[in-house]
Amino acid sequence: MKEINHFTKNEIEILHDGFSRLYSGVVYDTLHEDIKPPMPYVLSKAIKPSWDFDEVLCGVAFTVQGATLTDKSHANTTYVDMLSSLYDGCIEMISSGIDNKISVFGEITGKIARREGAVGTIIDACTRDIKGLKSDGYKVFSEGVSMIDALDRWQIVDFQIPLPFQGEDGDVWVYPGDYIFADCDGVLVIPHKDTFRTLEIAEERKERENRIRDLIKDGIPVAEILKKEGRW
Q: What is the pLDDT of residues 184-200, one digit of tens each?
């Protein structure tokens, strides 16, 4: 198996603590204006929170490949192996490979994923059991909600491999170990090697925007704000 980029447990905790205090605007601006990754990094705006939470979802990408079910006798093998490979601080990134009307995730799977360490799940298809997911506080981003189950229609065929997701500027390739930042404005994929630098710059950008907020509150003229802090 190809070597997978990873963070230590301590690094994951530091990153979560830092990114959970941010918002997608400053993280996007950091990627767009400072980091400038060579590949697209904004997932399709069709992928949204599946229930009404405002908190940030951030963690390390754990990629999961799905496909139309072809062999029922082996449908659960990779599924079980995948769930047992989840770890603290990861986010399941499920590339469904199927019609997005099908729900490939729900409350029971969410309970297991959380027990195994996942902090959330992002799917390019539908999810279901929203009441249960909300009750558990398990964050899911998906392209919609539907009660149509994936049982006997869909299976997990591989995991922890590079996978493409539809993006706003072309396919976004997600590699195991990349860092995921998601909030109510959308989902961003941060290359593994750029994660700490992105956090550092985004924190500086947030501080600057907070200064601008204070200047607005204090009634400072726009021209003076621009002169003092520059364009926001």
A: 999 999 999 999 999 99
